[in-house]
Specification:
- Residues 554-670 form the Non-reducing end beta-L-arabinofuranosidase-like GH127 C-terminal domain.
- The chain is of the alpha+beta class.
- It has helices spanning 25-46, 72-79, 94-110, 114-130, 139-143, 158-176, 179-195, 212-223, 226-238, 245-253, 261-264, 287-304, 307-323, 355-371, 375-389, 410-415, 434-444, and strands at 19-22, 407-408, 451-453, 459-461, 467-470, 476-480, 488-494, 501-506, 515-519, 522-524, 528-529, 532-537, 544-550, 555-557, 569-574, 577-582, 593-595, 605-608, 615-625, 644-653, 665-666, 669-671.
- The protein has three domains: 19-444, Alpha/alpha barrel (Glycosyltransferase), CATH 1.50.10; 452-550, Golgi alpha-mannosidase II (Immunoglobulin-like); 555-671, no CATH class.
- The strands form three sheets. It has a seven-stranded antiparallel sheet. Strands 15-16-20-19-17-22 form a six-stranded mixed β-barrel. A five-stranded mixed sheet has the order 3-4-8-12-11.
- The chain binds beta-L-arabinofuranose (FUB) and zinc ion.
- The site of beta-L-arabinofuranose has 9 residues, from loops.
Length: 672
């Protein structure tokens, strides 16, 4: 970076990323699904070509105000002065288009598609026409609230929206060389720089929804311009400095003129603005906000070498991962404010677990890996990729989850407002549609999540995704295997350079006690340092082979007994996958089953190629209590244990749930 205070150690991490072709059958299917189905489907929604039924908004916003025909692209046309219509939709709806554009950018890397490219170029042109002279772009404000620009940033999402455009622009410019896309982002950044800062006439506060910080970090890293990282750092440091900032802005703007009345009176922790970040001990408030903030923290810490930001990122990581995260990687224990609650509070049926929050955790983990070679970051990333995120989309790519519970019952979802935000089948779209395109951009960028190249050139192979990678240094790695179904992963490394390359293979915590590593044909006993086993690939080496055999036995897992909701329960896992029982496989109610703590034998696992796109199914002996008669007493003597029978419980990977008949689902099972 052209920086005086930039951290030369970490600044070039993205530039050292390899060019990757995905060969993994598992991920290839998802990438193709997104390119062939999801992106066209999402475009038809965003462009108002397809009517969508909107389920009740899980975040509590009134849905009646939203049309079945989405106006996202139309809003841009109106802002560009090409159509005359009122603004329609969520105030931050432009960001759905930008996430879609970013997903397209990554898709074009996997497959050349002139038609898609033409469409996306047209969207960039439209965005450029909609942008104001001074670089500002937010159609809600341009069409409807032009005199309130930056006047209520607690709720306005203006920097959130522009941050999403900046991310998309960087990705699109990198994928296609489209300078116009990047130019719009630069002008936006200039507008933000003009309006925010320490100057007397400038705004001295951060957006109520973190996002601009991570976006500026991306822009800084892509362009090599330090001013963007400095701006991102300023936004991180200003947060919480003046806890009254939002109230003062709201008062000046008119106290009751809310964009989102529902969030105005949330505590300041909701926006991570109750105190400076360095003083924030726990991950509190809105879960997606926390993950975006933390991604920015880690990224800007790396770019600027700011140790205090790095410490905050680590502290908040620990708060989430050690005390506030579900076994599937999901976060957000309550729908009230889509938020974290308190340590070890992880209810399974009233939880939130927003898809965006798992996507955000994947971003955060990726940035933490770029700061530090620590296996736990890779473990959590893997947990998110195979569980928390993928559950957000149906196997046919046209239905989505916003909220992802670990336990669901159609009767409960309909019968109590406590669970009204939980759906037992995915929806075609949402009034607040932040999740679908977020997931699309994660899946199409999966090639960026396999390796991290550290400042000293060490290559970390942290995700097991079969692929062919060519690094800027000339190193080539062909990774093979049928993960997550099979636990044998091989890397064939060619190192044509004149320096040995340090190659770190992640040893997942779940297999740390039982794995084998073979290096160039012989079994190796490497030291595992913080979750990575390191080997040296000699200079000039061709076809140097590293092979990892993981323990893929089905295992039963319990939570810390500080988690009240999971006490006396077990979950089933195999490799990175969390399993669940569904009513369509097992007669309900599912709470009548109990299982021993012993893992099933080998016979309890079978790959079924024709089920749910091809999945490994786990079966385990269980006792099933006979359901009491409907007209029987509500309370009975405890000595009357009823009758139980021995049955076989059938379980499928959590990410595939709700793709068949509507019914109950549970991850956690009673332990007998
Ligand atoms: O506020 C913008 C987005 O909408 C958030 O990130 C999501 O949680 C949803 O509330
Ligand atoms: Zn979302």
């Amino acid at each position: 970076m052209n920086a005086t205070n930039a951290n030369p150690e970490g600044a070039g991490t993205e530039a050292r990323l390899p060019d990757v072709e995905i060969t993994s059958a598992f991920w290839r299917r998802y990438i193709d699904l997104v390119i062939d189905k999801v992106l066209p489907y999402q475009w038809s929604v965003l462009n108002g070509e397809r009517e969508v039924d909107l389920p009740p908004d899980p975040g509590g916003n009134p849905v009646d105000a939203y049309d079945k025909l989405n106006h996202s692209i139309r809003n841009l046309r109106v802002a560009a002065g090409e159509e005359d219509a009122p603004f329609r939709g969520m105030p931050f709806q432009d960001s759905d288009v930008y996430k879609w554009l970013e997903a397209v950018a990554y898709a074009l890397h996997h497959r050349s598609d002139p038609e898609l490219r033409r469409l996306a170029d047209g969207v960039v042109d439209l965005i450029a026409r909609a942008q104001r002279e001074d670089g500002y772009l937010d159609t809600f404000f341009q069409i409807k609230e032009h005199d309130r620009v930056f006047k209520r940033i607690q709720q306005s999402h203006e920097l959130y929206v522009m941050g999403h455009y900046i991310e998309a622009a960087v990705a699109y410019w990198q994928a296609t060389g489209n300078e116009k896309a990047l130019g719009v982002a630069r002008r936006m950044a200039a507008c933000i720089e003009e309006n925010f800062g320490d100057g007397e006439t400038q705004i001295h506060g951060a957006d109520g929804h973190p996002e601009i910080e991570l976006a500026l970090a991306c822009l800084a890293e892509a362009t090599g311009e330090e001013r963007y990282a400095a701006m991102g750092r300023w936004f991180l440091n200003v947060r919480g400095q003046d806890p009254d900032f939002y109230d003062e802005q709201n008062r000046a703007d008119g106290w009751d003129r809310d964009f989102f009345a529902v969030i105005r009176d949330f505590p300041r922790t909701y926006y991570q603005a109750a105190e400076p970040i360095a003083d924030q001990r726990d991950a509190d408030g809105h879960a997606v906000r926390v993950t975006y903030l933390c991604t920015g923290l880690a990224h800007i810490a790396r770019l600027t070498g700011d140790a205090s930001l790095a410490e905050s990122a680590e502290r908040l990581w620990d708060s989430i991962v050690r005390r506030r995260m579900y076994i599937t990687g999901q976060i957000g224990s309550t729908h009230v404010g889509e938020s974290f609650t308190y340590d070890y509070d992880l209810p399974n049926d009233t939880m939130y677990g927003e898809t965006c929050a798992s996507v955000g955790m994947s971003f955060f983990a990726r940035q933490m890996l770029a700061m530090k070679a620590r296996g736990e970051y890779g473990d959590v990333l893997e947990k998110e990729l195979f569980n928390g995120t993928l559950a957000g989309m149906s196997l046919d790519g046209t239905h989505f989850y916003y909220v992802n519970p670990l336990e669901a019952d159609p009767a409960a979802c309909k019968g109590t407002p406590d669970k009204g935000h939980v759906l037992t089948h995915r929806a075609g779209w949402f009034a607040c549609a932040c999740c679908p395109a977020n997931l699309a951009r994660l899946i199409t960028s999966i090639d960026r999540y396999i390796y991290t190249v550290m400042a000293d050139g060490t290559i970390l192979a942290h995700q097991f995704i079969a692929s062919k990678a060519v690094f800027p240094s000339g190193v080539r790695i062909e990774q093979a295997g049928d993960y997550p179904w099979d636990g044998v992963i091989t890397w064939r490394v060619d190192n044509p350079t004149d320096r040995a390359v340090r190659f770190g293979v992640r040893i997942p915590a779940w297999s740390a006690d039982s794995f084998e590593l073979h290096v160039d044909g012989g079994q190796a006993r490497p030291d595992v340092v913080d979750g990575f086993a390191y080997v040296e690939v000699p200079a000039g080496g061709e076809g140097f082979e590293v092979r990892l055999d993981l323990n893929m036995a089905v295992r039963l897992v319990r939570s810390s007994n500080r988690v009240r909701e999971d006490a006396g329960k077990v979950a089933v896992m195999r490799g990175p996958l969390v399993y669940c029982a569904e009513e369509c496989d097992n007669a309900g109610p599912l709470w009548l089953y109990s299982v021993s703590g012993a893992a099933p034998t080998e016979a309890g696992y079978r790959f079924e190629p024709d089920l749910l796109g091809g999945v490994g199914v786990v079966t385990k002996a269980a006792m099933r209590a006979q359901e009491d008669p409907e007209d029987g007493p509500l309370y009975l003597s405890a000595e009357d244990r009823g009758i139980s029978e021995l049955v076989e419980l059938r379980m499928v990977p959590y990410y595939t749930w709700a793709n068949r008949d509507d019914g109950q689902m549970t991850v956690w099972l009673n332990r007998s």
